[in-house]
Structure formats: C-alpha cells, structure tokens
Amino acid sequence: MADKEDEAILPEIRGFIGTHDKDWEDERQWSHPDLEITVVLEGSGRFVHEQEERRVEAGHVALIPSLAAHSFHAMTPIRFGVVLVDGLPTHVRELFERLVVLGKPRIIALSHLDQDHYERLFREWLRSRSSTLKEPVRNDLAWIEILLLFLNEHSHPDQQSFTVSHTGDYIRRHLQEPIVIGSLAEMAGLSEEGFRKRFFKAYGMTPKQYQQMCRLEEAKWLLSSTDKDMQAIAEQIGFAQLHSFSLWFKKTEGCPPSEWRTRQRRDHH
C-alpha cells in the first residue's frame, strides 16, 4: 500500500550548477523541506550546520536531510552541483538515508576519478532535463536513483580513506604498472603497514586484489566494446605476454578471453 501511495505523489526535483566568487556566503543558516545533495565541483569553502563547521573542497559531497539548517561559505571561487528533491519514493529515499547518520547532514568524499564520473552523470541528467521527455518525472527519479547508488558505492566517510582513495585512482589509471606498496604508501602519506590497513578498510581488499579486479573490469570492457586484438588488450591492462593474459582470464572467468568475447556478442545480438 505504501508503495502505491508513493507512486501517487509526484516528487519535486530540481538540479543546477552554482558558481560563486571567493567572497560569497549564505546570509544565514537555511532550512527547507527538500533533501539536498550538493557536490563541490571546484574550489573550497566551509559548510556549517548549527554549531558544527566543516571545510569542504572539490570531491566533497554534502548530504542534507529535510529541514536541517545549514549554510555554505566560499573560501575561494567555488562551483557546486546541487540536487533538491521533495517527495522521493521510499526505495529511493532509503538510498539517501543510508548516507546520512541519525538524520543529520553529513559530508562524504569522492576520489578525483569518482568525482569526475559523478559530475558526468550529473551533467548528463541536467542535459536530459533540457530536452522534451515523454515521462519527465520517471526520468528524473531514475537519474536520482543512479546518482544515489553511485554515492553509496564510491563515497569515503573520512579524510584518511579519502587520501587512500587517491592511490585507488592511481592504480586504475596505471594498470600496466606493478603494485609497489612503498610508493603507494608514500603517495598516501602513511607507513606501509598503515597504508595496507587503510586500503583494506576503504576497499575491502588488498591493493593487488584491487588491481586485479580493475584489470578484469577493463579487459571485459575492451573485449565487449572494441575490436582490439587480444595482444593489444593484454598489453593495455599490464600483460606483456598474450599467453599469460589468456591463462589469467581463464582462471578468473572459466573460459579464454576470445571465447568470452564470442559469447558476449552472441548473447547480446
């Protein structure tokens, strides 16, 4: 019954990009009935909720529940991507509620790479809203759900995990390179042991396991979406020898990469 009632309520959804100079600030703490998702796209500033203050910068996302008093204050020229929603269906609202704690505003962090991905999704949603849609409300809800799912999957709750996430970005961008724990730890400003613990806390796996996961994702993407030959794909993800790539892929997926590509094309055409 609750789901049917949710469907009967048309949500109000707004989205925009706000750009301000370094002297801009809210006149006071505001509250409104909307759920708010604000990502800092460029620059830095301060976020204030009641008596609590937090510095925010590019990659930080402020999640603000309904009626929570808050204000933003620029410290440099700053650019925000803002989503305001009133009347979300229960299953989508639950995604937002997972990200906040005890109904209070919360700041989470995205790595540089994930911030870029989020901004692309956000801009694509704004672009879709500017076109003529047959079902604009359903389209908006689908996009909001995607954005919230993305934040649930890729956000980091503390600054140390945020710092470690930069090494995750590095691994994803340099799949051809071997994992050197000392170099990654130095990049994160941690001891090797501290880095290993922090990385596992952030990703639930070791750096080597994370690299292997990223290599597999990239290999599958290249196999399914390009016509690159096997040797080129192997080299792109860090295997100098095609034989080694084929053995590794078969061990992981249960079949050679050429067979996996054939199955994908057969099953999706």
TrEMBL record:
Alphabetized SMART domains for the sequence: HTH_ARAC
Residue intervals of the HTH araC/xylS-type domain: 165-263
Record keyword Lyase present: no
Listed GO MF terms: DNA-binding transcription factor activity; sequence-specific DNA binding
PROSITE patterns reported for this sequence: HTH_ARAC_FAMILY_1, HTH_ARAC_FAMILY_2
Lineage top rank: taxon: Bacteria
Keyword entries, A-Z: Activator, DNA-binding, Transcription, Transcription regulation
Protein name: AraC family transcriptional regulator
Organism the protein comes from: Paenibacillus rhizosphaerae
